[in-house]
Amino acid sequence: MFYKYEIRNNGTEDILYLYLDIKNEFSKELANSPTEDLNRRTKNFIINNNINFKGNKVYLIIDGIVVKTVNINKVNRNIKNNISYSNKKYLINLKIDDNSYIEITLENYLLSILASFYNDYIHDETLKCISILYRTYAYKEMNENKYIDNNLFINYFDITNYKSIWINKYEYIYNKLLNIINETECMFLTYRNKFILPFIHICNNGYTFTNPKYPYLSQVSSLWDLSCKYNKEIIDYNYLDLSKLLNHNIKYNSSIVIDEVDSNNQIVKLKIDNKIFSGEELKRLLALKSLNFNIILYKKYIRIITFGFGNFLGLSIYGSNELASDSIDYPNILKYYFPLCKLNKYIKEFPN
């Protein structure tokens, strides 16, 4: 990725120096890109980062060495950032932890997303659904904000980092995920002609939830999820350990009262003695799988039983797998879990 830039004048013209991190696979990919693609991506970087550069010559620097020279025309800041919605050409600005930006292709972004979900038990049709949901998210964020915040929904993690995880299966899994992305090329979901967010969970407690903030989320039956091995988890805490985790002294005779639940019967607020915890706070502090949980007090310990895994919104991975195993394809799986939404496909590319 570009981690620094500077503009120097050689006496006759301004030259833009873009510095890439040799440790990042993206740097090698960019340095070896075809001239036309490199020209376009360099222009996009200048536009998206508001670099006041009026020259034509750009040097790409890796480890102090000029590895590529790019000659560009003066940048028109009113041009569209993307001339195509295709996986290989659509460009994403990713905002990372230090508030800088890296530019990646939609293909690389989706490979990262699918790699983070990948497991031998996940059906190809389910992965296609996930690919479409996150392509939709990329289109939405780039259209509305011109970048994707890497801290929301899911973190980008370059797929080449999985080489040490998948070891001998890396090439096989890489090609498998790439084929899935290509099979869903340019497909996305909308609700009333607007892109939706990628709500996905592992399994629910028999049905998905609605949310008043997102009218495209429907309550649909997903009884398969009840047989998911992740559906129910029982965790026992002794009072001392739980007190440390919650930073509050809890005893056998402590008063524990559910103070508020939402329309889906999930815990919003829990009161322990005189201290109120939000459901999300408890979920984070105790690493619970969902906000659908019961608390049982015993003399020597507290038992917490959680049901489901995730927020119960949108696509159920376990339910999708069950549908796919019954020969239901990805358009119909998406239609089942997002009945109010429409599956679309960009056919025409923007002109150059």
Structure description:
It is a single chain. By secondary structure, the chain is of the alpha+beta class. It folds into 3 domains: 2-71, no CATH class; 91-214 and 313-345, no CATH class; 232-307, no CATH class. The protein contains 10 helices and 18 strands. The protein has helices spanning 25-31, 35-48, 106-117, 124-144, 163-166, 170-183, 239-246, 279-286, 317-325, 330-337, and strands spanning 2-9, 14-20, 57-62, 65-71, 91-95, 101-105, 148-149, 187-191, 194-195, 200-201, 232-238, 256-261, 267-272, 275-278, 293-297, 301-307, 315-316, 342-345. It has a 4-stranded mixed beta sheet, with helices on one face. Strands 6-5-7 form a 3-stranded mixed beta sheet. Strands 9-8-18 form a 3-stranded antiparallel beta sheet. A hairpin with a 5-residue loop joins β5 and β6 (101-105). The longest helix has 21 residues, at 124-144. It starts with a strand and ends in a 7-residue tail after the last strand. The model has no long low-confidence stretch (mean pLDDT 87).
Uncertain parts: none
Q: State the assembly state of the protein chains.
A: single chain
Q: Approximately how much beta-strand content do the residues carry?
A: 25-35%
Number of helices: 10
Order of H and E elements: EEHHEEEEHHEHHEEEEHEEEHEEEHHE
Shape: globular
Structural class: alpha+beta
How confident overall, as mean pLDDT? 87
What's the main sheet like?
4 strands, mixed
